[in-house]
Design a protein that fits this description.
7 helices; elongated; cell membrane
Length: about 160
């Protein structure tokens, strides 16, 4: 049964709400903007980066970020929501930050114009991606925590199974 699945367990982290709120605060609005402003932040930006099939992946990433952000906000299926966010963040680092580290175009990905390149520029430009990647990894491993919809559903499921 899906309700008894590890994917929906809330975990025991009482302060996971702060990680959830930080992820929700980023991905709800970033996902929305990819859909609302596709030329600037969605397919148009993906074209400039070198992402294949940007007209497909722009809206898909926007929807995934928006939905995952909403799931993080209420604490429902946060482990499940973390999976696409981890993939999105890894692709973001590989496609936009590795060229900065190398100081040149890399594989199919373009290099954006910056004042400097190399390791320190890479670490500076990657700080938000890294924080969101670590937050999503935390959600995957720790779950939604005590103050979440997952916890309410989990408590209800456990109390129903005890009374039977």
């Amino acid at each position: 049964m899906i309700r008894n699945s590890w994917w929906l367990t809330p975990g025991a982290a009482p302060w996971a709400i702060f990680v959830r709120l930080s992820l929700a605060g980023v991905f709800i609005f970033e996902g929305y903007q990819k859909l609302a402003y596709p030329d600037i932040l969605g397919a148009g930006r993906f074209t400039g980066i070198g992402i294949p099939s940007p007209e497909f992946f722009g809206p898909v990433v926007g929807v995934l970020e928006l939905l995952a952000g909403l799931l993080f906000l209420v604490g429902f299926a946060s482990r499940v929501a973390a999976v696409p966010i981890i993939v999105i963040m890894l692709v973001a680092i590989i496609s936009t930050k590795i060229p900065i580290l190398l100081g040149r175009e890399w594989w199919i990905f373009s290099l954006r114009d910056l004042d400097r390149y190399g390791f320190l520029s890479f670490t500076h430009e990657t700080r938000t991606d890294w924080a969101m990647l670590c937050g999503a990894l935390y959600m995957l491993l720790a779950g939604s925590g005590r103050w979440s919809l997952d916890n309410r559903l989990w408590q209800r499921t456990r109390s129903q199974s005890i009374t039977r």
